[in-house]
Amino acid sequence: MALRIDPRLGDFARTLRRVPTPLEEKLWHHLRSSRLGGFKFRRQIVLDPYIVDFFCPAVGLIVELDGDSHDAQADARRDAALAARGFTTLRFTNRDVGENLEGVLADILRKASSLPPRFTHPPAPSLEREGGL
């Protein structure tokens, strides 16, 4: 059975994927297609009730890229809620990515490599997406 998400969140996540910020696009170039240490990342993924910037399902790592308008207290509450569900969040500023991309990538790889795998076997494909039921 496929997981159901709030359709409004799904629509908004699709919009975010279509029009990334230049720095999100820059970071995504290095995370996509398992380019960073073989870790598969997805972008603008719904983890209800949130949309996360980048997510590695294999180890439950969330990478957030924060602009100037982020609220540190709200981010802390969100990170705690996601941590309670078993996810680890790394946050970087736009400035970090713009001025120190190699350092950001090294931090992400270090953290991803230190986390235990969430699956002992590959997850089963979604029957809905694979043309099944």
TrEMBL record:
Pfam families: DUF559 (PF04480). Gene3D superfamilies: VSR Endonuclease. Residues 11-111 form the DUF559 domain. This is DUF559 domain-containing protein.
